Amino acid sequence: MPNIVPFRLVEAEDYVRIPPTEFGKPLEDIALQQLRSKYEGRVLREVGYVVAVLTAKVGREGRIVFGDGGTYHRAVFTMLAYMPLDGEIIEGVVENVREMGMLVRIGPILGFINKIHVMDEPNIFFDASTKSYIGERSKRKISVGDIVRARITGVSFTTPREGTDLLLRVTLTMRMPGLGKMEWIKEKKPAVKKT
């Protein structure tokens, strides 16, 4: 299997507006500030979740638009983006546990695990007072703050309503060997005999 890294550097191009109040200042600094404001924290279908805008090269010659005192400059910039991959094994921290499932922080995004995919047990109970799940047979408990290993089972892009930003939805499962709360995984590892 090829080594695929979900974090990647992406080169992009856009135009930045330099307002008259910023004339005389370094173009790259102003462009970086504007590009970071525009792109960081957004989801782009071809790129994924934009974590950061790292660098920008700005054309020295700008264009003037009638009725606008600013200048527009072509900028080529590099973004650090995260694109979760279907089937990828991730480690994350449980951020929220609810009756229907739990949210797991995977770097810059949240993934969702449906209650039935939390443990490989027929009955899992939700304890609202401690915001945790408890397995009926094993009595294993998983709560907010626990570190877990899960597999991504779905990645989709949605727009909640017209005029809003694109959202990245990630679904997860922990019902497979080698997955679950990190403490459980460590318990299952056989001891290595020293000779």
From TrEMBL:
Signal sequence, start to end: none
SMART domains (alphabetical): S1
UniProt-listed HAMAP family: RNApol_arch_Rpo7
The protein's role, per its UniProt record: DNA-dependent RNA polymerase (RNAP) catalyzes the transcription of DNA into RNA using the four ribonucleoside triphosphates as substrates.
Protein EC: 2.7.7.6
Subcellular location: Cytoplasm
Gene Ontology biological process terms in this record: DNA-templated transcription initiation
PANTHER family the UniProt entry points to: DNA-DIRECTED RNA POLYMERASE II SUBUNIT RPB7, DNA-DIRECTED RNA POLYMERASE II, III
Entry-linked PROSITE patterns: S1
Domain remarks in the Swiss-Prot or TrEMBL record: Forms 2 domains with an elongated structure; Rpo4 packs into the hinge region between the 2 domains.
Coiled-coil segments on the chain, per record: none
Protein family: Belongs to the eukaryotic RPB7/RPC8 RNA polymerase subunit family.
Subunit description: Part of the RNA polymerase complex. Forms a stalk with Rpo4 that extends from the main structure.
First-level EC class: transferase
Catalytic reactions on record: RNA(n) + a ribonucleoside 5'-triphosphate = RNA(n+1) + diphosphate
Keywords in alphabetical order: Cytoplasm, DNA-directed RNA polymerase, Nucleotidyltransferase, Transcription, Transferase
Keyword Transferase: yes
Keyword field contains Cytoplasm: yes
Protein known as: DNA-directed RNA polymerase subunit Rpo7
